[in-house]
């Protein structure tokens, strides 16, 4: 629900000079999708935060992607998802940037997508399709980065994500610290 205030006028509205609060229903699917994007930002931020720059090139096996390649792919997924939402589907295969730049690109892509979702611009694809494809894929890849951190010897701590302070709209690098972490 979104509260809107309007100045009262004649015609059955609030008296002149008084404020009347009107409620507009928000789209519950879009709201849940925005929460999912904030969840991706929180979990992705945790997976990349504190990783040393050399982690970007870690390779678990000869044929696996490096964390830098995975994070670049997540950035591509987010850019593609936004293009689909706008009705102008476009895909890029971006080469990985240095780790800190790729992390910044991840959050920038989330912020662009969040701004679009927070606007009243139409979605040209259903929230369900956007979730089941690129966003679910991005969440999977965040898990891969977390697993690779442990394998590379720079593990991140676990936490109870149910208790995490995840808020729609908070998709940048400034996430709330975890309530309680564990090994």
Describe this structure in words.
This protein is mostly helical and about 180 residues long. α1 runs antiparallel to α3 and α2 packs parallel to α3 (about 100-120). The chain has a two-stranded antiparallel sheet. It has a two-stranded antiparallel sheet with strand order 3-4. Helices cover about 45% and strands about 10% of the residues. The protein has a single domain (about 30-175), classed as Four Helix Bundle (Hemerythrin (Met), subunit A).
Please state the oligomeric state of the protein chains shown.
Answer: single chain
> Considering DSSP H and I runs of 4 or more, what fraction of the residues is helical?
40-55%
SS content category: mainly alpha
- Strand content of the residues, in percent? 5-15%
Q: What gyration radius follows from the Cα positions, in whole Å?
A: 20 Å
Individual helix count: 4
Largest sheet: 2 strands, antiparallel
Order of helices and strands: EEHHHHEE
CATH C-level = Mainly Alpha
Estimate the global geometry from the Cα principal axes.
globular
CATH level-four homologous superfamily name: dinb family like domain
- Strand tally is 4
- What is the CATH topology? Four Helix Bundle (Hemerythrin (Met), subunit A)
CATH architecture: Up-down Bundle
Give the averaged pLDDT, no decimals.
90
Strand order of the largest sheet: 1-2
Give the total of domains. Answer: 1
Unreliable stretches: 1-12, 20-24
């Amino acid at each position: 629900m979104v509260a809107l205030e309007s100045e009262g006028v004649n015609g059955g509205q609030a008296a002149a000079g008084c404020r009347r609060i009107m409620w507009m229903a928000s789209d519950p699917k879009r709201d849940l999708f925005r929460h999912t994007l904030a969840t991706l930002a929180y979990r992705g931020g945790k997976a990349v935060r504190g990783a040393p720059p050399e982690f970007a090139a870690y390779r678990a096996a000869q044929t696996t992607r490096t964390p830098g390649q995975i994070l670049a792919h997540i950035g591509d997924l987010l850019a593609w998802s936004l293009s689909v939402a706008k009705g102008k589907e476009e895909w890029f295969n971006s080469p990985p940037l240095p780790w800190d730049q790729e992390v910044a690109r991840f959050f920038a892509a989330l912020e662009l997508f969040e701004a679009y979702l927070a606007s009243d611009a139409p979605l040209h694809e259903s929230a369900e399709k956007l979730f089941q494809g690129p966003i679910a894929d991005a969440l999977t890849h965040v898990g891969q980065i977390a697993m690779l951190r442990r394998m590379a010897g720079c593990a991140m701590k676990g936490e109870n994500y149910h208790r995490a302070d995840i808020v729609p709209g908070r998709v940048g690098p400034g996430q709330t610290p975890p309530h309680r972490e564990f090994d």
